[in-house]
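Fold this complex.
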Amino acid sequence: MSQRDDLTYEVESHVRAVLRTAAADLRSYVEPRWVEVADAITSRALRASRPSPPVRAQAPSGPVRVAEQVVVAHLRNSLNPVAGCEVHNIRLEVREERCTGVVIVVAVQFGKRLIPLADDLRNRAERRLAEVLGQDMVPVTVTQMHVHIADVTPGDPSLG
Amino acid sequence: MATSRSDPTAVERSDEVLARRGALGDREAFGELIARHGPALYRYGVRMLDGEHHAAEDAVQEALIKAWLNLSGFRGDSSVKTWLFRLMANQCLDARRRRRPHWIEDARLDEVPTKDTNAADALALARELREALDVALAELSWRQRATWMLREVEGLEYAEIAVVLDTSVAVVRGQLHRARANLAARMEMWR
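Structure:
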């Protein structure tokens, strides 16, 4: 290898090292402007409302309509505290704006007893539906409230 | 993966769990996803939009609104990070199409910060290097710049970059090779 080749190789190695350093520096760099605007951007994004079909509910003052997304969010809140279980999906069955059933899809930690767990989920969901839609609107039987175990995980499924 | 700064005992949930919860209307979970990936999305936006911070803010804003509105449609075919970067890359592309051509002044192309050998402050040195890199990146084509940023800074795999930029792995490989060569030529002066 000539002296010129040696020099070229040395320069190329140096440039590669400089680029690696620059990329690593950029990777750990948080733009100061982001720190200033992050809260505003986050809250604006979270204010966007998702289009959602209405579900009839019975308030003390009379009939009202509640967005399906709102019902789902309430159900999720009521099911989240159940240990060893992670809600994957909640589907409302709605016919002519009336809630006619609920499908709850969950992942469960290995070793959990499934029947008591499903009963717990069903009871919690039923109570919350009564709060959100009114007592008359609640589907209460096992055939109307279906709990589907989609996955069994070795660890806590709420951590992923 | 980021950890909660406010509560050191807080459990660390995966992106997939947070996305699933967000799809079911959990705003806190989606906020956690933003805290985790927002800085990288914004950093990418600033460089793809030639340092225009307001344009980058708008692009991140729109990308995150789309993410929030479409979370229930996220099927997990790619990672959450890849999906967010795809939304962001599309927003940046739209922003570039909308605006007038961005001319780079000759003086800026010639401007290569030189290393201040007297600088004792490592932070100042890092800043100079970052500025030199930004100048060099601004000269790359959009695709080369995006590919280099996603691979070298954000650490995405070739297949993930192909998803983000809606292209093939072979194209990603070629663009990355050219981006590295072009950046090396530019940064060669930074010694």
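The longest strand of chain A covers residues 98-109.
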